[in-house]
DNA sequence: CGGATAACCTACATGCATGTACGTATGTAG
DNA sequence: CTACATACGTACATGCATGTAGGTTATCCG
């Protein structure tokens, strides 16, 4: 029984206990959202998978929407920490774009990345707070990519083409597609994403010598939510 | 006109009426599925948007699932007619892949293409008849692409890389991504899809002279369902 | 040790969407 | 003109998921 397990385990502070159950619920919710989406997500299943009941969930989150928004916020944090920070360290716009392509393709191995796609597709064309939250993140990211594309063009690094905003949308779509389609493949080849976006942007292809070696990146498993 | 022909045309009136309302409901359902997905699709809205009530819908379709399956079948037909046939006419595998890339990117302008994506995402990882129907279509398509990739490799047209099945998944993902992200943009540049998949597959980029001209394809609006 | 507070569970109320049964009107054949 | 079939509408029943209220158990502090 749950109560016996709790009383038998090591004593924790109330805040710790709260944070721990909150993390468990968030993780279960992220898994559920990535597979079932928002509408098909049933809260009792989420709570049970985390080892609780709906009562605990409604004690920690206001409602279903609040739970989903918390998951979206968690996604944004982890993405910024794992991908955005790496891209910000690059000085040249092309390098930053490639860093985003490879980093996001790698990030797509995580459960949360699939949740991002699922929610975005589900709420496209709707007017729902969760959809707006997702759109805000993606729009910010797209704006950054559009600025990078514009900068790379003005410096002559990539040839002219469609408007930067449109190219940025296609760019992110390509990166996401490669990441999602290849998530679960081992070894995970993040260079495929780079090859695709190079073609899209009009950059010269990667050197054949490097390409033949096929460098594969290995990712650590999902971390615990904070 | 003979009496048989007259009675035949008269007998047709009911069948025609049935087919017309069926088409109207199918079209409304496709629109609804592309924006709301399956779970959020409300049959009363579908029927009302087609100018009927749920009674007519349940007279022509067994249930919600049957309606969605009919939409999926309609998607498959139109896709084969507009994209698959074009690809089959190409003799060289690379040309067939490019034809699929450009054709599918163009096809993505249609409402139904968005429904295809929405349903596929919604039912990924589920065991639902609608999801199976979608998966069957996509799997067949992916198998065709994988065969084309393998053929192109054995003829030396494209360099070696990840397994053809994985490449085919990424290929379709890229094509879909470019098509979806750029649907609604005008002029619609199907060549972006070609550039992206060329990079992905390891093909040389398109000639700059042709690229600079930026040939845009214009599509007719959605046809009536048959 | 014991009250207070927070974490958590159980049971009920509500709303919404599907599916079904039945009613009506229009078309069709003998 | 009569009898039947088909297209479509209306109203009810059911199931399911959310949200809420109140009770129970665990933790904190004087």
Largest interface: A-B, 44 and 45 residues
Report the CATH superfamily of the domain at 63-213 in chain A: Tetracycline Repressor, domain 2
- Following the backbone from N to C, one meets helices and strands of chain A in this order, namely HHHHHHHHHHH
Shape estimate of chain A: elongated
Biggest sheet layout of chain A: none
Radius of gyration of chain A in whole Å, from Cα? 20 Å
Distance between the termini of chain A: 26 Å
Taking pLDDT < 50 over at least 5 consecutive residues as the criterion, the unreliable ranges of chain A are 1-10, 209-226
Please work out how many helical segments of chain A DSSP would assign: 11
Query: If classified by CATH, what would the architecture of the domain at 63-213 in chain A be?
Result: Orthogonal Bundle
According to DSSP, the number of beta strands of chain A is 0
Derived from helix and strand composition plus strand pairing, the structural class of chain A reads mainly alpha
């Amino acid at each position: 029984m749950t109560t016996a397990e709790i009383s038998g385990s090591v004593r924790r502070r109330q805040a710790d206990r709260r944070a721990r159950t909150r993390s468990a619920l968030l993780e279960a919710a992220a898994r559920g959202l990535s597979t079932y989406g928002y509408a098909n997500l049933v809260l009792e299943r989420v709570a049970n998978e985390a080892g609780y009941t709906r009562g605990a969930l409604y004690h920690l989150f206001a409602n279903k929407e609040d739970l989903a928004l918390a998951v979206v916020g968690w996604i944004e944090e982890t993405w910024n920490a794992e991908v955005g920070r790496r891209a910000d360290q690059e000085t040249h716009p092309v390098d930053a774009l490639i860093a985003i392509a490879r980093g996001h393709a790698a990030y797509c191995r995580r459960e949360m990345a699939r949740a991002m796609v699922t929610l975005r597709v589900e709420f496209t064309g709707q007017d729902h707070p969760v959809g707006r939250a997702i759109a805000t993140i993606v729009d910010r990211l797209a704006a950054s990519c559009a600025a990078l594309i514009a900068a790379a063009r003005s410096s002559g690094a990539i040839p002219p083409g469609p408007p930067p905003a449109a190219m940025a949308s296609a760019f992110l779509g390509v990166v996401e597609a490669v990441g999602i389609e290849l998530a679960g493949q081992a070894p995970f080849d993040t260079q495929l994403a780079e090859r695709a976006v190079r073609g899209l942007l009009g950059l010269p292809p990667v050197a054949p010598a490097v390409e033949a070696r096929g460098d594969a990146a290995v990712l650590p498993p999902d971390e615990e939510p904070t």
